[in-house]
Amino acid sequence: MSHFGRTGPPDITDTYSLLVLNISFRTTADDLFPYFDKYGKVVDIFIPRNRRTGDSRGFAFVRYKYADEAQKAVDRLDGKVVDGREITVQFAKYGPNAERIDKGRIIEPSSRSRSRSPRRR
């Protein structure tokens, strides 16, 4: 859920999204807000959850209205300890070039073949 309650998702067009990795599984949007609010107008904070369990997936998205504020947050918060964990803050990437994330960490792409046919030996 967003930091801004159940009023529905905010309008995120023309916003700058940051990916925050390695957050504690108990960290909430309310916990993150004071860290990020220091650097500009936070439009939204979203912490994805596991669909089955409802548990945090260990990362968050923080959206700013202005690029310079988002850049300031990246510069000042990347490597900072929040809730006992050293967080990584970077601009989020979307689409086919986006990183895959599991348990708050980026998963390196595997070089395995995607073919489902059995290998010839």
UniProtKB/TrEMBL annotation:
Ranges of residues in domain RRM: 16-94
Keyword Nucleus recorded: yes
Pfam families tied to this protein: RRM_1
Record GO terms (molecular function): RNA binding
Keyword entries, A-Z: mRNA processing, mRNA splicing, Nucleus, Phosphoprotein, RNA-binding
PANTHER family, A to Z: GLYCINE-RICH RNA-BINDING PROTEIN RZ1A, SC35-LIKE SPLICING FACTOR
Protein name per its UniProtKB record: RRM domain-containing protein
Organism encoding this protein: Carya illinoinensis (Pecan)
